[in-house]
Amino acid sequence: MSAADLASSAMSDRHVAAMAIVVWAGALTPRHVPTVVLLTTAAVAALALHRRWPVRFIITVAILASFLSGAAWAGIEPAVAERYVGPVVLVTDPEPVSGGVRVAAVIEGGRYDLRAWGSPAGGLRNRLMGERVQVEVDLRPLGNAPAWLLAQGLSGRGTVTSVESFDVGSPHTRIANSIRR
Question: Which of 59, 72, 127, 169 is the most exposed place for a label (fewest CB within 10 A)?
Fold first, then answer.
């Protein structure tokens, strides 16, 4: 391939701008597909990039963005309504809300938006991100939650009914939180 051929097949600024737009559009239109289809699309994109086919690469990357967006949304499993008793890891610092506290926490691999009022709120109020807290919580699905909650990758919501004990977390969490206290 000559230098002129390489220059004509390279991606121009217009190609890059078009790719940014179609990737954005692809991410906004999630399509869940089997892993084999996802991997095949990634291989086609790699081939198009290697062969310097900019238009084919842009189209394939847009499709890939849609498939990856679908895979991300499929990974969010909705919670079932249940009572959970056990440890939770705080993902955020508790923040005050009307008469209580709100905190994001990981419960058995799922991320939940937890609220506490009264005595349980007092047990959570002084905790920090990364700490493990032994709680009793009523979990429920998000239902028709606002889009900003869905974008956080939450599995559900919960109301904390009891806070038993806490652990300051892993060594690196302990060090970071000791600086913040």
Answer: 72
Over pLDDT 90: what percentage of the chain?
Answer: 54
82-180: CATH topology: OB fold (Dihydrolipoamide Acetyltransferase, E2P) (2.40.50)
pLDDT of residue 6: 45
Mean pLDDT across the chain, nearest whole number? 87
> Measured at the alpha carbon of residue 81, what is the angle toward residues 79 and 85, in degrees to the nearest 5?
90
Give helix then strand counts, H and E, for the chain.
7, 6
**Domain extents in the chain:** 3-74, 82-180
End-to-end CA distance of the chain: 63
Quote the CA–CA distance of 118 and 120 in Å, as a whole number: 6
pLDDT value of residue 163: 93
pLDDT, one tens digit per residue, over 109-148 is: 888 999 999 999 999 999 999 999 999 999 998 877 777 7
Residue 139 CA to residue 158 CA, distance in Å, equals 4
